[in-house]
Specification:
Multidrug efflux pump. Pfam families: MatE (PF01554). By secondary structure, the protein is an all-alpha fold. The protein has one domain. Helix content is 85%, strand content 0%. The radius of gyration is 21 Å and the shape is globular.
């Protein structure tokens, strides 16, 4: 498969061609959990749907630690590729793989040891606990597969190959859906079957992309002489990886805190939130991946020292994100009820009504999160992941505080949780853009 050098050629054309497979890939990745949600919601009932929805939030938070570290490492890989420094690229591969593999083991141990406490902290209703415990015990058996896929996908994307990760993800998504139907409807294994289908599909993509990369990219293979650790290299990888990991974890921890507040409103709100979040994520996921593609573009050009090309790329990316978000916002707001009907039986009118309220509030402001993803990508690519952490804390901190504060007012109730989200996006956007312009002005004055 062809590698794409983003330091040359058409900016908008290359950026879009690189981004499209990422967008398609993450939409497919959403299908993992959407398949579970659709089948569980339709055939196993509201309690099972609530369990899978809450499990997804927890799973996203914990796997975001690994995904964040992979994204941070990917930024280093992109910079080295832009510099054309293959020796340092291989050093980065060695150190980042060892670091993230060790973190994978730690997370697996902590999840299984702390499961009773996790269920208590999340305020899971008693009738949902058995379903959620079963689902989590199975789903986290696949965390090593999640690491393998995201690590090698980050490596391939860093050197301009966004197609191969898409191919492996597509194959495993189809397998996931087939196994969901077989395990849940055919064998009657309930939520354990839904989780097992996802785990097996994840191993197909994780092992498959690992084998492909080692066979088809011999330049990434390490010789015995290269298998030695360097504290300096490990420090650089660790700093960028852990700060990106922190940014991802803070983001998902905030969502997890909100999930706890949602759970306190009962099963109907939990089920509505579970379905609406899948639609919400599916809607803005393409612009999140566009932000990741934008980050690779910035990192490669940052490594190559092409500042003018970076400025031009920023203008193109913001314009494209705005147009996309405008279209998606209109579609989600207009079709909120039919979209909820995909996941929830038409007779569950209360659940559908709650979900529609969520989608119309979130959907009207998608450009807020679209711009935020671009800011995350930019600051990660120019070795300023700490700024991404600050923006995430502002966004999610605002969201959590307002969610708990507003929803405590009887006249506002659960609507306060939904309204807190776009307010958090807006605050982070204002700070991120202001800091960028001040940074540019300072550089202009010094230059």
């Amino acid at each position: 498969m062809k590698q794409r050098d983003l330091t040359k050629g058409s900016i908008t054309g290359n950026l879009m061609l690189f981004a499209l497979p990422l967008m398609a890939g993450n939409l497919l990745q959403q299908c993992y959990n959407i398949a579970d949600t659709l089948i569980v919601g339709r055939y196993l009932g509201a309690n099972a749907l609530a369990a899978v929805g809450s499990s997804y939030t927890l799973m996203t938070f914990l796997t975001s630690i690994l995904i964040g570290m992979c994204m941070g490492s990917g930024a280093v890989f992109s910079i080295r590729f832009g510099e054309q420094d293959h020796k340092k690229l291989k050093e980065g591969i060695l150190h980042s793989f060892g670091l993230i593999a060790a973190m994978t083991v730690v997370i697996n141990v902590l999840v299984y040891a702390g499961l009773p406490l996790i269920l208590k902290v999340l305020q899971v209703p008693a009738e949902v606990v058995p379903y959620m415990r079963t689902y989590l015990l199975v789903i986290f058996a696949g965390i090593s597969a999640t690491f393998l896929y995201n690590y090698f996908a980050a490596l391939l994307r860093a050197v301009g190959n966004s197609v191969v990760p898409l191919i492996f993800l597509a194959a495993s998504t189809v397998l996931n859906i087939v196994l969901d139907l077989l395990f849940v409807l055919g064998f009657g294994w309930g939520v354990a079957g839904a989780a097992g289908a996802t785990v097996l599909a994840q191993f197909v993509s994780g092992i498959g992309i690992t084998v492909y990369t080692l066979i088809c990219f011999p330049e990434f293979r390490l010789s015995r002489e290269e298998l030695h650790f360097d504290k300096r290299v490990l420090g650089e990888i660790a700093q960028l990886s852990f700060l990106t990991c922190l940014q991802q974890s803070v983001m998902n921890f905030g969502i997890l805190m909100v999930q706890g507040r949602v759970n306190s409103f009962g099963t109907a709100v939990m089920a509505a939130f579970a379905a609406a979040v899948k639609i919400d994520s599916f809607a803005y996921m393409p612009v999140q991946d566009f932000g990741n593609a934008f980050s690779t573009f910035i990192a490669q050009n940052y490594g190559a020292g092409k500042e003018k090309r970076i400025s031009q790329g920023i203008k193109s990316a913001v314009t494209a994100a705005f147009v996309f978000c405008l279209v998606i916002s209109a579609a989600v707001c207009a079709f909120a009820a039919p979209l909820m009907g995909i996941f929830v039986n038409a007779s569950q009118t209360e659940i559908i009504s709650i979900g529609v309220g969520y989608l119309r509030i979130e959907g009207a402001f998608y450009f807020g999160i679209g711009l935020l993803f671009l800011l995350y990508g930019y600051y990660r690519a120019v070795k300023m992941p700490g700024m991404s952490v600050i923006l995430t804390i502002l966004s999610l901190g605002t969201r959590v505080v307002l969610a708990y504060t507003l929803s405590a007012v009887p006249a506002i109730g659960v609507t306060g949780i939904w309204a807190s989200v776009p307010i958090g996006w807006a605050l982070a956007d204002i700070v991120g853009v202001t800091y960028y312009w001040k940074k540019m002005r300072r550089k202009s004055e010094l230059g």
